[in-house]
Amino acid sequence: MASAQSTAETTAQHRAGHGARLTVDLSAVTANWRHLAAHAPQAECGAVVKADAYGCGLAAVAPALWRAGCRTFFVAHLSEGIAARALLPEAAIYLLNGLPPGGAEAFRAHALRPVLGSGEELAEWAAATESASPAALHVDTGMNRLGLRVEEALALSGDSVIARAGIDLVMSHLVSAEQPGDPLNAHQAEAFARVRAAFPHLRGSLANSSGTCLAPGARHDLLRPGYCLFGGNPEPGRANPMRPVVRLEATILQVRQVEAGETCGYNARWRAPTPRRLATLSLGYADGYPRSASNSGHALVGGVLCPILGLISMDLIILDVTHAPEARRGGTATLIGDSLDIDTVGQAAGTIGYEILTGLGSRYVRNSIE
Ligand SMILES: *Cc1c(COP(=O)(O)O)cnc(C)c1O
């Protein structure tokens, strides 16, 4: 009893020592993964966990996905791959950014699979690999970013370098998957089908989060969702079938009354049209909440949507709580959560939910719940 109490006190003190709390719902991550897996029973569902699992914390997210049944993971960099390997000793881990010059040794030491994105990378991996360590071949069907050109890939059909390099997967990446009406989707699907026909023995992967919602033909053998596992809407403009994953809450430091005509914050970017009640939150752009949401974002206090006023400061945000009677010193405001989903927050900040997630800071108390 005594020790439970002191644990609770320590937790309360710990919370009070920070301005904000980020809660990551791991059961929502795994539910989202299961949802995708169930809707594409012909394909394997992998998980993209680059950028510290989209800001949600690789250390908690990766093992949770493994326990849910996910066996194939994608990250961007070697350092991310090494971190993922330590958490997932038996998983297949692909590195989307390919093979850096001289990197083969480190990849092999950690049993990591490069997604080879050029003829040079392919040749280097094949030369460095005696026993055909697995790797993927990236074919560019329209992004012009990473990957062999379609013609370049087709010319490798039947070439022994494919087997020597241990290629077991051919993949491409969609340019506009979140816009199902964009003709680029059909163009890329057709180009990828030609590539797959040239390598009939290789597994194929094309679909990111939004790609999983396109025609079933876009799914191929392995899905590569990232964003929607973390609650992002794969079909903008339609109801989000995913469960929300992150909740960001900040403490209210002060509540004050201002008269009509008074201003608030740096450069006086907001002026009270009538007498108002303001609350100051202990969270700012240094915590990863975007400054571009100044004068346009919102927070919830007791379920009431309260506008952000003026410029967001480094450590503070000012909120209009005139219509939120629950606002009080020590109370809580929700910046992300409930009606303020990551897509909505991204839009208010003039960006996308992806950037909100990956920008989530390390200044909070972070909690994972299962
Ligand atoms: C990041 C990434 C993904 C995941 O995309 P989401 O839109 O987050 O699902 C898939 N494939 C590649 C090549 C990527 O870079």
TrEMBL record:
The modification N6-(pyridoxal phosphate)lysine is found at residue 50. The active site is at residues 50, 266. Its cofactor is pyridoxal 5'-phosphate. Its EC number is 5.1.1.1. One of its GO terms (biological process) is D-alanine biosynthetic process. SMART domains: Ala_racemase_C (SM01005). Catalyzes the interconversion of L-alanine and D-alanine. May also act on other amino acids. Belongs to the alanine racemase family. This is Alanine racemase. It comes from Methylorubrum populi.
